[in-house]
Amino acid sequence: MNAETPAPTTGPGTRERIVRATSRLLQRQGFEGTGIKQISREAQATLGSVYHFFPGGKQELAAEAIRHGDQEFADLLREGLGSTDDPALAITACTRLLGEALRESDWQDGCPITTTALETVGRAPVIEQAVAEAFAHWRAVVEEKLHGAGLPLADARDLAATVINTLEGAELAAQIARSEEPLHVAGRHLARLVDTYRPGR
Amino acid sequence: MNAETPAPTTGPGTRERIVRATSRLLQRQGFEGTGIKQISREAQATLGSVYHFFPGGKQELAAEAIRHGDQEFADLLREGLGSTDDPALAITACTRLLGEALRESDWQDGCPITTTALETVGRAPVIEQAVAEAFAHWRAVVEEKLHGAGLPLADARDLAATVINTLEGAELAAQIARSEEPLHVAGRHLARLVDTYRPGR
DNA sequence: GTCTATACCCCGATAGAC
DNA sequence: GTCTATCGGGGTATAGAC
Questions:
Q1: Which structural domains are found in chain A, ordered by start?
Q2: pTM here?
Q3: Which residue of A60, A80, B40, B138 has the smallest Cβ count within 10 Å?
Q4: Hey, are the CB atoms on B166 and A166 less than 8 Å from each other?
Q5: If you write DSSP's letter for every residue of A50-114 in order, what string do you get?
């Protein structure tokens, strides 16, 4: 069923190096600010290889990179949410992880897909689709945590949306201010909000 | 003190047309996706005029456009916040205004500065400065409303940050989903959060 | 699958006439 | 202040050898 048969002892194959490099560049420079030549350079692949794997050009490549960023961010959410049973504390754990990653990258590595998402609203359907799926995925991860902790499904769903949206906004603010504080404040407020929906208070 | 002496009966002058066109284009296409030639075309000005008024080139022009968008967004916030004394209801009024504007523009006109802000993090100081001032301005507008409604100053300050950040994230989600719902959910959650800080409950 | 060369276009910025 | 012409470089994408 799987057509891929990579060599056993080598590192990531060409296709994967291209996707990874694209994901990182889109995160830091956005779609319009990133060139395919730059991608091929950073991925240590030739331009011919890029178009061999992604005949749809820059848009197809960006859509695949968005899916890569989707998984990356979901992994971070799962790590934070899995650190404790308490749903409110679990969310503040996420804000802490996000703040640390942001500081360590000198405030460069924010959400891996937001910049590209904004640049392509209403003008690149394949990318928009990948973006919409990523956000839905992240909301589902949070919703599952909140519902699993005893919150009614409808509340968990709405709260998950606001959790993701507030994390997005706070991460942007943290990048602009070059400070983890907006994320920490968001963590406290989200925890407080979630607690108002808890059965046992 | 003021060097400007515009003709009395004419419309906006060349400089202002350029700034307005730039602001709209940055809102919809971002910094890297917008060309100076396109700006001069839409502003009905020549390339020479653009560089006459903005010798610092694209960055200086973008910084000025950010300041324009700053005022625009602040005006919308003041309109929403001024619609009622109740601070929680005032915030939901803002989400309603944002949702209407978004829908009317076919989900194109989100926050006027976010895309450019993200694209230029850590790489264009004059733009970053204008962006930081805009966000501080918006937080101050919300903070004043909350403090004026009786919230302690420290609470009002922190809440204002989360209000702005959540509005940013919800607006992004609304553009992606092509739906006002994320903004409405954000409005309900923010109102609920603010209410937990109110003295009289 | 990988590589080079290249077609064709638009970019930001400048020069200098009017 | 306005306008046109142009410079040098980089953009996406393709062709075709190996």
A1: 65-197 (1.10.357.10)
A2: 0.96
A3: A60
A4: yes
A5: HHHH-TTHHHHHHHHHHHHHHHHHHHHHHHHHTT-S-HHHHHHHHHHHHHHHHHHTTT----SSH
